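To whoever is on call:

I kicked off a structure prediction for a single chain this morning and the downstream step that reads the tokens threw a length-mismatch warning. I double-checked the sequence; it's 164 residues and nothing unusual in it as far as I can see. Pasting both halves so you can look.
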Amino acid sequence: MTLNPNARMEETQNGTEVYNVDPLIVKSHYEIDYIHSYAQDSEFFRALGKKKLMGSKCKECGYTYATPRGHCMMCGAETEWYQLPNEGKVHTFTTCYFGGEEFLSETPFHLIMVEFEGVNSLFMARLIGADHEDLKIGMKVRARFRRNLRISPTDVYFVPVAEE
């Protein structure tokens, strides 16, 4: 093995475009094609096209998951599909000011963790139709589904439920 304490990274003429110094804002380009299988989660994505949210329920201990999984994290037993309600409430939220390439044009956007009655875990999704100052923990929300599916987790999103 040869050690070279004078080794250097290759330098190019390409630099980083700086848009602002305080706070530091820079331009980044990112692009990739990615082929993957939804495997055991395929039913979740097929159900979105039927305007249904599917989670998992443990066949042994009955623990219910808002996000699908093949085996229970509590006891290790197999799970089965379980239809979630389309209404829940905001457990917590955050506003994203930066996102992956696909979402940059939509920033800022709100992500919420939805709590469903009788379900032991939470479901993360986007919330639209509410300004930041209107977001509240415990706010009632309803699932909505894209008409033209992208076969993506973003095919489901939530909107506020109008208070009566």
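Update from on-call: the warning came from a stale cache, not from the record. Cleared it. Sanity check on the structure: The chain is about 5% helix and 30% strand.
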